[in-house]
Amino acid sequence: TTHSPLPTPPPVRGVALDMNQARLAIRQVPDRPGMAAKLFGLLAQHNVSVDMIIQSQRCRMVDGVPKRDIAFTVSRIDGESTQQMLTQVASELGWGEVVLDNAIAKVSIVGAGMVGQPGIAAKMFEALAQNHINIQMIATSEIKISCVVAQEEGVKALQVIHAAFGLAGSEKFVIPV
Question: Distance (Å, rounded) from C-alpha 18 to C-alpha 106?
Fold first, then answer.
């Protein structure tokens, strides 16, 4: 007997919107081994869970010390206390201003079929671009691509990505504020 091949799963199974995030950006973090460990160790000690992390590619010299910016997202409920805590240790650890932005949303596409499937990220970014939605941060894993956008564009971002991948109505997830 011949077996018909299993249908290949669609590369993208769903789109999720998280309106419950805040971004913290730490300016001018000294660019030396151990700084990220110190920063994220501090967050762990304060029970702050971190989602997306971006370290700037560009290094700037400040008073002869190479520095980079580091930005990351946390639950909105942790935003202000984390900003205060990181501001208190800033001079001791040698970094600059700690900037908090609560007006963000994270939109993600998920699906195990994305691995080895070229063009998935491009399709997501193109859908946002065509709708004039600016991407502020991007994080990827094998089964997920997430973008941070302005909070007021979150629902629209969810809808246009949903449409771009032709997903059924049931595969949209909104995590409320």
Answer: 5
Taking only the tens place, the pLDDT of each residue in 122-141 is 999 999 999 999 999 999 98
Q: What pTM was estimated for this model as a whole?
A: 0.86
Residue 47 in contact with residue 85, Cβ under 8 Å? no
- The pLDDT-based confidence of 1 (bands split at 50, 70, 90) is low
Burial of 82 from C-beta contacts in 10 A (0-12 / 13-18 / 19+): buried
- Give residues with Cβ within 8 angstroms of 142, minimum separation 6: 112, 114, 115
Banded pLDDT at 9 (limits 50, 70, 90): low
End-to-end CA distance of the chain: 54
DSSP 97-161: -EEEE--EEEEEEE-GGGTT-TTHHHHHHHHHHHTTPPP-EEEE-SSEEEEEEEGGGHHHHHHHH
